[in-house]
Specification:
384 residues, alpha+beta, seven-stranded antiparallel β-sheet, five-stranded mixed β-sheet, 14 strands, globular, DNA binding, Transposase, DNA-binding, Transposase_put_HTH
């Protein structure tokens, strides 16, 4: 039986010049409201620290007054400002209740920007397979590899650092569970092989960062040199007391090199995400219960010889994909403590002690069974 889930669908949208200007104005207005409300919260706390934490509705009541004082706020979608208030209050509450970082003021220099729009009175509509209607923007063409089925709850309009525009739809849709296979698998995560299953299947590591390393390094060198040249020119302008000294954003050759580096980083991330999606989908289709180790990646990154290879693997992203896909399709993901999984014999349970990383195969001195280090760990994870 199909179950309702909230699902995110990413669309690549292609706004025209007027729509890009409207999106840019929305970025600015949402940033302005965030900064104004955050300043108000700080002042409120300084005046009376004993006051209870406000709700997002409290900030929403201030929006009409803020629009009267700053008429340019009327040009953007009102629900996007309400979402900004909600996000600010959540961050503000987390600081006091969960001791997270205090919300920061937003700068217009940050290249990656976004805002959200709620579905109100059918103001968001997908016309056909290539056209979507968004509030304040109108009709816009898009591309996507997923079918859009269900009720749209909200849309996030985002511009990436490579100046590409996306609309991420949050859709309430029904998903049919996959057929049960009655199989259980354990997953060991590694560096030479990305995923090793308890059945002996190994998904190899693909170093997408190395495949594009030369082209990326070509532009990284030019970016560093052009940044230094621009900073030297800016310092010279200050020394000569130029009335309007230039900033880094005014140097086109520097901006071009920065864009090219960002494009290669984006391509590497897209290739890695696509590979992880393929692996996670295969595992969810083949097994009813998936057990994987709970690796502390932050600790492993302290090994400077393997830090770049570990960062390339995307273990946490794979775990996230398996978690939501398992819930979608009626499967189960179990997280297992990896303690001694690679040194305990999966055949007899004998603890042979810690093995160096260069030892990939070992023989159990108790039962004389030869083990592949990673497959043995996956078997122990499966039986945990």
């Amino acid at each position: 039986m199909a179950v309702l889930f909230l699902k995110g669908i990413k669309l690549r949208v292609y706004p025209n010049r007027e729509q890009r200007a409207q999106i840019q104005a929305s970025f600015g207005c949402n940033r302005f409201v965030w900064n104004q409300m955050l300043n108000m919260l700080i002042t409120r706390y300084e005046n009376n620290p004993e006051l209870s934490l406000p709700s997002s509705y409290t900030l929403d009541y201030l929006l009409p007054q803020l629009k009267r004082e700053y008429p340019f706020l009327k040009s953007v979608e009102s629900t996007s400002l309400q979402v900004t208030n909600h996000d600010l209050i959540e961050a503000y509450r987390c600081f006091f209740k969960q001791h997270r970082g205090f919300p920061k003021f937003k700068s217009r220099k940050y290249p990656k920007k976004s805002y959200q729009v709620k579905m109100v009175n059918h103001n968001i509509e997908v016309v056909d397979t290539h056209q979507i209607i968004l509030p304040k923007l109108g009709s816009m063409s898009f591309k996507t590899g997923a079918l859009i089925k269900g009720t749209i709850k909200r849309v996030t309009i985002r511009r990436s650092v490579t100046n590409k525009y996306y609309a991420i739809l949050l859709v309430d849709t029904s998903i049919e569970p996959l057929e049960k296979t009655k199989h259980i698998v354990g997953l060991d995560l590694g560096v030479s092989d990305l995923v090793i299953t308890s059945t002996g299947v190994k998904y190899p590591t693909k170093r997408f960062d190395k495949q594009l390393a030369d082209k990326k390094h070509y532009w990284e060198k030019r970016l560093a040199r052009r940044r230094l040249q621009a900073q030297t020119q800016i310092a010279r302008d200050h020394h000569n007391h130029v009335l309007e000294p230039r900033e880094l954003t005014d140097f086109k050759n520097y901006q071009k090199a920065k864009l090219m580096v960002a494009k290669y980083n984006e391509k590497i991330a897209n290739q890695r995400n696509n590979y992880l999606h393929q692996i996670s989908k295969q595992l969810v289709e083949q097994y009813d219960v998936i057990k994987m180790e709970d690796l502390k990646t932050k600790n492993l990154l302290r090994n400077h010889h393997l830090a770049r290879a570990i960062a390339n693997q995307g273990w946490r992203l794979l775990r996230t994909m398996l978690a939501y896909k398992a819930s979608w399709y009626g499967k189960q993901l179990v997280i297992v403590n990896p303690y001694k999984t690679s040194q305990v014999c999966a055949n007899c349970g004998y603890d042979d002690g810690k093995h160096a990383l260069n030892i990939r195969r070992w023989t159990c001195p108790n039962c004389d069974v030869e083990h592949d280090r990673d497959v043995n760990a996956a078997l122990n994870i499966c039986r945990a």
